[in-house]
Amino acid sequence: MKPRHPLIERLATVAGACDVRPDSVEAFEARPGDAVLFFAGDPVRFPEALDVAVVLPELQAAAGGLAIGLVPAEVEDALARRYAVQRWPSLVWLRDGGYLGTTAGMKDWDDYRRELQALRQASPGPRPRPAIAIQSAATCG
Known about the structure:
single chain; Glutaredoxin; 5-stranded mixed sheet
């Protein structure tokens, strides 16, 4: 297991984030209240992940308490399929066992505030269906 970047690891100590893996994701989803899963990806490939990691405790405070789940790199692909995450970094928003939405990439603070306000008004629903890759067949000659 590759160690996480210190800014992402810091979320565990500063914001009380916990690791969420395939064997614990259902329990994390089912917890009461608002929660977010952080799909950071590799910060070398996706440097925005470090910006999101810095902003996440501020989002937690603005949301009035928010459980943060960190998705370890070695299980990101499996959990990304579960929520149809297609871009890194992403935040998957949950409430009371239901899905609220996904925020991909880094946003301006005002955009995050608007999104949080919309999420507070939203009713949880089912997870999105995973995207299905479609490949074209070779044409007949």
